Amino acid sequence: MSDTGYAKLIKDGLWSNNQALVALLGLCPLLAVTNTAINGLGLGIATTAVLVMSNATVSLIRNLVRPEVRLPVFVIVIASFVTAVELSMNAWFFDLYKVLGIFIPLIVTNCAIIGRAEAFASKNHLVPAVVDGLAMGLGFTCALFALGSLRELIGLGTLFAQADLMFGPIASDWAISLGSDFRGMLIAILPPGAFLGLGLMIALKNIIDSRLPKKKPAPISSSNEEMETNTA
Amino acid sequence: MQFTTITSPHSDRPNSVSRTMLLVILALVPGAIAMTWYFGWGILINMLLASVTAVICEALAMRLRKRPIIPVVGDFSAVLTALLFAVAVPPLLPWWLTVIGIAFAILLVKQIYGGLGYNPFNPAMAAYVLLLVSYPVQMTSWLPPEMLNEHPLTFLQTATVIFTGALPGGLTWDALTMATPLDSMFTQLDQSKMVSEILMSPLWGDFGGRGWEWVGNWYLLGGLFLIYKRIISWHIPVSMLASLLVIAMLFHFLDQEAYPFGMFHVFTGGTILGAFFIATDPVSACTTKKGQLVYGACIGLMVFVIRTWGGYPDAIAFAVLLLNMAAPTIDYYTQPRAFGHQGARRD
């Protein structure tokens, strides 16, 4: 695969096929944990780690797995990596682990991961699969982080509160506050705020896309093929 | 030579959106005057502020969508949304909350779906819920009705409180505000007081809260005017009030001291306003007659459930929004059989 191929993979993952804003996959963690910027970032990085590792493994075993049993095999691969990530977070980021709680094991059910395994990794070589996993994961993380920042800013009037959960004691004074006069708009950190925030972010992305100069449509490649998964 | 097209003789003059909206606004007038009488100038200030904000937001949305501004702003639907919002919120609501609420109602609940006729939710109630969930303290600081109010505020004082948040000298929010009758009933029931004990307070009038019951009566008058003018049909208000009354009576007879009497539910909070002006919103409500009966009855049921077992003070807004969501489904199952169509019964 040529260099432009990798550039396209990265562009797809970060922007034009962003798993959160375009494919709308992985909405459960996306909506549930993005009440602060740090929570969003933490879960995003965990998801990215799982995505890269599962893409790599699925790509390596793609010729060994019969098509009839591929989905259970993918799920087992993903579940193993999620367990590994969960145990690592339990060991090294215990406070963040406590905050994210059930949503770390729930990365298993994130459609974005099995979606990439099925649609991309099982049909491509190792390196493109890893690049794809990294790009998709980073795109997902950016969306989680942006939504988390937005909701934290509006709902609590702070940004990067509790950053020490993730970056250690060094980050304990990273929190930015809009001032004690600002009474947060509570709905932003409640579940409806997640839906409203995500809707506004998608709208913003569509506005930006429509303002960008139109390019001639690129030939459809197999990497762009989107799949439908029925896993929740 | 021009032939004028003559319509059927029984048809009234042509109806239009702006005429409908103006008639609804007209029907709001008695209730709004009564509210101003009992709760002070804040109601009028809120109405004015909300209307101006609504018109500006509507014009802004039309400009962003590159559509003509005048015909849409001129249909008065945004003003009606603003007025319904203004009579639902507390009279001393800070100005920026009114602005946030109306901007949300017009831009995000109404225009983002395509404007009047396309919004699945009632904009005024969505804005009310947004603010109630976000700012519960400000949204529940109601003034006591005029006859119980020891510190009536002048027009200037009211405006000062709304726009700067500064209270007149020597007053605190606690001295100025009072729980609504509905709120105080359920708060005290939660403290395991008995209904008869709670009703001894001077807050209560003949059917519901003092002052509140008369506001309800004036809204009722406006609502009957709307039915007489055929702007709304009787189905939603009647089924909503009847189902609320029936279920409340049922529980009242089961345990008279734990559940207030049926008329209490009708004459406190925003029940009458909700039944005639909000649940009947032609855009977000059901359109089939049978569906309207189901829709109204479900709203009445939800109002009782949310008021009795829920955590928020009034339930009209939540009940209406929940049933807005169900309205397309209800309509789907209550389509009238087309004339001459055999229907599924014979199969």
Strands side by side in the biggest sheet of chain A? 1-2
Uncertain spans of chain B, ≥5 residues at pLDDT below 50? none
Main sheet specs of chain B: none
Mean pLDDT of chain A: 81
Number of domains of chain A: 1
Please give the largest β-sheet of chain A. 2 strands, antiparallel
Low-confidence region ranges of chain A: 221-232
Q: Radius of gyration of chain A in whole Å, from Cα?
A: 18 Å
What do the pLDDT scores of chain B average to? Answer: 86
State the secondary-structure class of chain A.
Answer: mainly alpha
Please indicate the percent range of residues of chain B in DSSP E strands (runs of 2 or more).
under 5%
Modified residues (FMN phosphoryl threonine) (chain B): 180
EC number (chain B): 7.-.-.-
Cofactor (chain B): FMN
Subunit structure (chain B): The complex is composed of six subunits: RnfA, RnfB, RnfC, RnfD, RnfE and RnfG.
Describe the structure.
The complex is a heterodimer of chains A (232) and B (347). With 232 residues, chain A is an all-alpha fold. Chain A has one domain. Chain A is 60% helix and 2% strand. Chain A contains nine helices and two strands. Chain A has helices at residues 3-16, 27-32, 37-60, 70-92, 94-100, 111-119, 126-156, 164-167, 191-211; strands at 158-159, 176-177. Chain A has a two-stranded antiparallel sheet with strand order 1-2. The model of chain A is unreliable at 221-232 (pLDDT under 50). Chain B has two domains: 16-177, no CATH class; 194-333, no CATH class. In chain B, 61% of the residues lie in helices and 0% in strands. Chain B has helices at 17-39, 42-64, 70-73, 77-88, 95-110, 123-134, 136-139, 155-164, 173-176, 181-190, 195-198, 212-228, 235-254, 262-267, 271-278, 289-309, 316-333. In chain B, helix 2 packs antiparallel against helix 4 (77-88) and helix 13 runs parallel beside helix 16. At the A-B interface, helix 9 of A face helix 6 of B.
